[in-house]
Amino acid sequence: MLRLRQLTGGPCFDSAAPPFAQAPQMDLELLLSSAVxxxxxxxxTQRAAEGSTDAKEGRRSLKRLLGIIRRAPQDLDAxxxxxxxxxxxxxxxxxxxxxxxxxxxxxxxDPHALERDLQKVLQGQFWIFGGQFAGEAARRRLVPGDEVxxxxxxxxxxxxxxxxxxxxxxxxxxxxxxxxxxxxxxQVHDAVGQALNYLVHLDEHRxxxxxxxxxxxxxxxxxxxxxxxxxxxxxxxDTINDVLRTVNTHLGRIEVxxxxxxxxxxxxxxxxxxxx
Length: 276
Known about the structure:
Distance between the termini: 30 Å
Shape: flat
Low-confidence stretches: 272-276
Strand content: 5-15%
Number of strands: 7
Number of helices: 10
Strand order of the largest sheet: 1-2-3-6-7
């Protein structure tokens, strides 16, 4: 199966014109040459290890699916409405997502993982951020001098940026004591200020970005991923979540999340039955 994605060029499709009415012609050529086989052989060890992991995850997904059928046989009618290709594709997608989620959790809980390590495992997994996103923008530098970590595209071609900070390897704390309560640390405030500057620049270059890249940045939003409860074990996880939730209620276009909260949300999105 081939999946084609527009990288740059014209604006996103809308209801005003058929999707392929004015699409440029492209020629595709599939090659199976010795050069390709040689290139594949160079990283065979790494891919074999990843394949083994994916195979194990696929078997676990199949067992979970069979468990659902046993517990809720009435759902067989809904499964019967899918053809074989759809059912297999859905199962493969589930296995891929769970494998990606497991890899992200492993890196997020690594006390030595840097921002670039987290960004690497997050790229291409836009589903983790919610079902409202249709994909990632091909360009990370939309404004001169600014390069966002992950540019997400909603279904209506509006933009949301993701700013990645360290997880367990965060230098310093997420929250701190202030008089009789808890407040976010300077690191959280700095990340919010950085995201705010990005949004201001996107607003200022809105017309150029829309005309050149087909993305709408008016009132774009930002998500900041920072820290993990394991980075500050002396503070209860509920306290950290409450502080960040309070901060989010006062931020109109910016949301702050820990990696654990993102992972837990994505796990629930896959379904409670499938999470067990």
